[in-house]
Amino acid sequence: AVVSTQSGHYGRGTTEAALRKEADIKDTDEVLHIDKMKEVLTSYKSRQQQEKAIVQYEALCNFVEKSLEMYRGELSLVIYPLFVQIYIELVLAGQLHLATDFYYKFKNRQEGREEDINELIRIKSKEGLQINSTFSHYRTSKYVVKMCKDSFNCLLSHLQDNLHVLLLNLINMHLFVDVFDGLPKQPSQLALSNSTILGDGKRSVNEQKMYYGVHHSSTRIQALLDPDEYEEEVEGALLGAGSSAPTDAKRKKKKVPTATLR
Length: 262
Prior knowledge:
The chain contains 15 helices and two strands. The chain is mainly alpha-helical.
C-alpha cells in the first residue's frame, strides 16, 4: 500500500520498506508476504493498535506545529481528515469511550471545523454514520488534499522515518494527495480548502469546455448589444401571441444625440 497521489510513484519504495519492517519481513525475502502485510494494515482493529494510531496522530500534529512556516499550512490539511477517520474507525470498532477521549483531546486542533466536529461527536454507531449526510461521504469518497511536492515529501518522510504505518494506511485508503510542482499554497487558498466537505476538488473537476462569445439564447445580453434588433424580436413575439400590430410611432427610433467637437 502506498499513499494515493496524483503521481502514483511517490513514496512507493520507502513505504514498502516501512511496511516490511513493521511486519518483520526480511529484505532477503523474494516474495512479499501479502497476508502478513494485511495483518499490519488492519491491526488497528485491536485495542493496542487503536491506541498506537492515536499516538501516531498526536506525533503528526506536533510535527506539523513545529514544521517550517512555509509548509505548515499545507501539512495541516491532513490533520482534519485523519481526525475524522480515526474517530470513525474507533466508533465502528465499538470503542466509544476511546473515541470520545480521542475527540475531546484533539478537537481544539481542528481550526475552522468547529461546526463539523460538533456533528461528528453525535455519531455513536455504524447506523448513525450511515444516516449522517456529511460524514458518510468520508467512507465512500476520498478526501482530496492538494500540496506542493516539497510539503508532500516532508509529510511522507515523517511518516516513514517514524514507521507510522497505521496513518499511512488511513491516508492510502481515505485520502487522495494531489501533488503539484511549485510553491506552497497561499493562506487564502488554504482557507478555501478548509471550507469544503471533502477538501479540494480533483483536477478533473475543472475539465469542462469553455466557449467564447455570447450564447444565442441570451436575449438580455442581445438587448444591451443591439437594442433595435431586440425590440423587433419582442414585437414579433407579441404579434405571434395575438397582440395588435405596433404603430409607426412605436416603431420610430429615437435619435441618439451626438457630441460635436469645436
